């Protein structure tokens, strides 16, 4: 298939009302420009710096919610497009969870790793995010623990988590502290 652009939020997660985030688009070419779309609306065009473009959202409102994607152009021709990125803006009401990792920040390839997202609120679900990946990973949850078996170099990166209430209206927490996992 055609090459795809990586698109992700930095920092990842549900954006707090009034907060800010950056939509990053990465494509391994260096001469063209990126166009950011929201739904079918062309929002902005950016000449890239290196192989990435950054589109900022600041003082986020509910109007910023929606589906975003990028196209990469050279000489007016679309060479690649990204997957769709869902952007959510919410009032964050729950306390920020705490993320820890066992056995530690540095592991050998093939090791098993457990991320623990600790929250004070009963009956929450949590997302574990890996910055730079295209989407949040919603993982099977048992007491807030996410187990990865046989981690590889590609699992290295900056992780964070964010929780939401499972009952009634969905309420979100702020994003946790970040942890860097290094797979050697």
What's this model, at a glance?
With 184 residues, the protein is mostly beta strands.
Structure description:
With 184 residues, the protein is mainly β. The chain folds into 2 domains: 4-90, Immunoglobulin-like, CATH 2.60.40.10; 93-183, Immunoglobulins (Immunoglobulin-like), CATH 2.60.40.10. It is 0% helix and 53% strand. The chain has no helices and 19 strands. It has strands at 4-10, 15-16, 21-26, 33-38, 41-47, 52-57, 66-74, 77-82, 85-87, 89-90, 92-94, 98-102, 106-107, 113-118, 124-130, 145-148, 157-165, 172-173, 179-183. Strands 1, 3, 4, 5, 6, 7, 8 and 9 form an 8-stranded mixed beta sheet that branches. A 4-stranded mixed beta sheet has the order 13-19-17-15, with no helix packed on it. Strands 12-14-16 form a 3-stranded antiparallel beta sheet, with no helix packed on it. A hairpin with a 2-residue loop joins strand 7 (66-74) and strand 8. The protein is flat. The mean pLDDT is 89. Residues 3-88, 97-176 form the Ig-like domain. InterPro entries: Ig-like_dom (IPR007110), Ig-like_dom_sf (IPR036179), Ig-like_fold (IPR013783), Ig-like_Receptors_ImmuneReg (IPR050412), Ig_sub (IPR003599). Keywords: Disulfide bond, Immunoglobulin domain, Signal. It comes from Catharus fuscescens (Veery). This is IGSF1 protein.
